[in-house]
Structure of Glycosyltransferase family 92 protein:
Amino acid sequence: MKTRYSKYRKVIFLLMFISLLFILKTNTLMNKTKQKLNPINEIERVQTMCGELCKTSRVGHPGLFFQKPPKNIDSCSEAVHIISAVTQGKRDSDLIEFVVLNVLDGSVRSNFDCCIYGDAKLSFHRVKAVVKETYPQKRRVVSLKARQYQCFVHNISSPMKHIQLVGKKEFCNSSHIRQPVLYAPVKENKFAICAKIAYNYLNPLHLIEWFEYQKMMGVDTVLIALQQVNEDAYAVFKYYEREGIAILISFPCKLPGNIDRNFEPHKWNYHQSTHDEQVAVYSCKEILKGFGFVAVVDLDEYIVHKNFSSYTEMFKVKNFKLV
């Protein structure tokens, strides 16, 4: 009996082993067939396993596997926002060689042309827009970079009134916003201050003190980009504008892009707002390039020399020290 059961047991084990081999071989053949019909690589297998979780590795950041290639933006009407357009500082306008556009740029390839307009409101010159400078991004990529484009216009004899950026496949005379061209004044022996952006509430008495100190220090011109300020502060700015020392330029109250931000502490976006501020500095520096001396000074800052010398006297002396 034992011998008979032992034989049956061996036969059963043999059949089980053969069945297992058959199943394994069948699965192998099926997998090979699937690979031939629908080949997938290692990354695609991981995508299938991860499913929706692979689409974003972290909030706000494209995933490793599902990152889409950037689109080539041919139109700059929604991607590039011109804050100012300033000519090279020349006494003779016929000698101007370029116009600088100070922009917040959300484009990918920065491949645009400049359309120049005159009195007839029709473009009479088109030239490639060359990137002059881009404000460096720090740890995080921003959607709108502070950038400068340069448009060479040395072959133009007609006066320039407006300028426009267009994509390579777009025509001039399009419906995009046309930016007025500012002619930079030339004052070779004069001193100017760029005060960046005035916004929110500003104490009018402190502003008066600040302006009077700048006058005492020999400042000829103060350029300020105005956003939304309180009425008393605005009255002070207008007073010094009438006096001839202040130049007021507008800065957008509603900043472009999808981020709701401002320069107030609770709306300050660390990454994007630094570029917003920098584009104002770009504008200021280009407008004041025709001056002999230029300093970037905030409305709550004072430059004081140990001997209380004026600014021009300071900068004429090498290795001067501030207290």
